[in-house]
Predict the 3D structure of the following.
Amino acid sequence: MKILVGYRGGSNLAEDLLGQALDRAVAFKAAVKIVTVMKQGGEKEKKQIAEAEAALEKARERFAKKGIDCQTHLLIRGLGAGEDLLAFATENKVDEIVIGITKQRTRVGKLLMGSTAQTIILQATCPVVTIR
């Protein structure tokens, strides 16, 4: 089994997300792919890229301590986060996606602006676990 974790470090939700993914990986003897998505990765984003890579490495170490097969990926492909995570899930034939829901939006706001979690929940071809 392969679990994809849509991850953006630096928050309590991110830590809860990793904890849930770790529990699921242990329970299902699954390999884990922790993925952070950035839309751009030019010279201006160097600091954000370095921070994202450091957060991913810290997350990978957490799984390694438990003996879980874990790979990290920083995607900078010019796509929106939901779109990129779904494409990655398809490319890597993942069996489950674990994501966090961070913002509460009104129905109108979601209609106009979209939501990464909403995109994934509605379009994923595999089960999606959400953490709030």
